[in-house]
Amino acid sequence: MLRAGTISRLGRIRTLGTDLHAPLGQNRGPGRQRRLPPFGRILGGFCLIAIAGFSLYSALLRDDLKKTQPIETAKKEEPAPAVEEKPAATGLTQVDPQSGANTTRIVTGDGSVVTMFSPNNRDGNGPVLINANQIGQDPRMAATPNDSLLEDSPFGKLPITGPSGLRPMDQYARPWSGARGTRVAIVVSGLGLSQTGTQRAIEKLPEEITLAFAASGNSLQRWMQDARRGGHEILIQVPFEPFDYPGNNPGPDTLLTSLSATKNIDNLHKAMGEITNYTGVMNYLGGRFLSNTSAMEPVLRDIGKRGLLFLDDGSSAQSKSGMLAKTLEVPHAFADVQLDGELQQDAVMKKLDELERIARRNGSAIGVASAFDESVDAISKWSEEAAMRGIEIVAVSALADDPKHP
After folding, report:
1. Distance between start and end Cα atoms, the chain
2. Helix axes 261-272, 293-305, angle to 10 degrees
3. Which of 6, 44, 78, 205 is 20 to 30 A from residue 135's alpha carbon, by CA?
């Protein structure tokens, strides 16, 4: 029989066992439950929505930044826009030293340079530059003709004075020091008549020696280019009528006193069209023609008009070329010594010594020779020693009497 106290303890145990199987927090009194009021629940919902929206906006913003970043980087790496025309090349007026003509150069949008020439009367606006470039051609382009100094003709491309007043005798002249010491010019003529002789002369003669090509020669364009690349100034040699013509015939298309001026000019142009890049014309023979002023005048006039010089080889004492050239204001030179009248190397050396004496007395002198082996050998040897004696060997254009540059 159980005691009353024992029954009471068992009742409490059953009650605890029942509570252990009940979920946590249940079977509590109503006073212990806590619930948010309706307003709080609404406010909390709004907070959750705001947090979710801000998180979505941040994610989208990061994606946008990632997408736009390469574009911005590409923009930074783009090359800078092309620089506009430089002031020095746009609307700049230059005065050509030979003619005084105005030359305006403008750079177009595609980078091309447009050159415009106008008379030398100016309104005084804008800068003016005096072009003081040294006369002569860039050695790298010496064998290439200046197209602005050529015109087409039935006889080929003929030399002319350029639109700016630039003359072929200036463009193709061999530059020299400008010093007023003792100067000597030596012209070796007849190149093109013998292939081996021409090659030997071009290879062996110093570049200061002027070379004259016979218009009736062969492979003249090739030899002209070799000579120009070698630094030589060149002339074209034209056949003129000698006193004993036709017994002594200089060759086809000889200029004759019996021909009309028109026919002689045509023959002159045939010779001129054989090559380019020469500074002037030299006679081949021609004692009779050179002494006839009526025949010579139109020929010299055409030579001067084309911006060329005329070299008289000095073979005729009756030549009127010097007097006519001064009257017509044509650049002109006259040879002082025939170097190889006697074709022996020692004899040529003596003539070269005579040429030196004339140069020391007068300040300058011109000697002419043919492209014979003896002449070439003597001139080569003498030229090597000339500088040691204070002599400057110059091209023939440097000693020409030029009315435009007195």
Report:
1. 163
2. 40
3. 205
Cβ atoms < 10 Å from Cβ of 276: 25
Instruction: Identify any residues that bridge with 283 across adjacent strands, giving them in sequence order.
Output: 238
**Phi and psi dihedrals of 236, rounded to 5?**
-105, 130
Q: Which residues of 53-77 are buried (b: 16+ CB within 10 A; e: fewer)?
A: eeeeeeeeeeeeeeeeeeeeeeeee
For residue 16, what are its two tokens?
Answer: 């605890």
225 compared with 14, residue with greater pLDDT: 225
Looking at 189-331, list the stretches that DSSP marks H as alpha helix, in order from N- to C-terminal side.
Answer: 195-204, 220-229, 261-272, 287-290, 293-305, 321-328
| Residue carrying structure tokens 């010779």 | 271
Alpha-carbon span 159 to 279, nearest angstrom: 9
Helix H segments across 1-108? 4-20, 38-77
Answering whether pTM is above 0.90, one says no
Tokens of 164: 């700016």
* Burial environment of residue 371 by CB neighbours within 10 A (0 to 12, 13 to 18, 19 or more): buried
Q: Return the domain boundaries, the chain.
A: 87-130, 139-399
What is the 3-state secondary structure of 133-153? CCCCCCHHHCCCCCHHHEEEE
139-399: CATH superfamily: Glycoside hydrolase/deacetylase (3.20.20.370)
**Residue in this structure with the two tokens 């020391």, named with its chain if needed:** 360
Cβ atoms of 250 and 285 closer than 8 Å: yes
Complete DSSP assignment for 384-406: HHHGGGTEEE--GGGGSB-TT--
pLDDT digits (tens, 9 = 90+) for 167-187: 999 999 999 999 889 999 999
How many Cα atoms sit within 13 Å of 102 on the Cβ side? Answer: 15
Task: List, for residues 8-42, the tens digit of each pLDDT value.
Answer: 444 443 444 444 444 444 444 444 445 555 555 66
Residue 316 burial (10 A CB sphere; 0-12, 13-18, 19+): buried
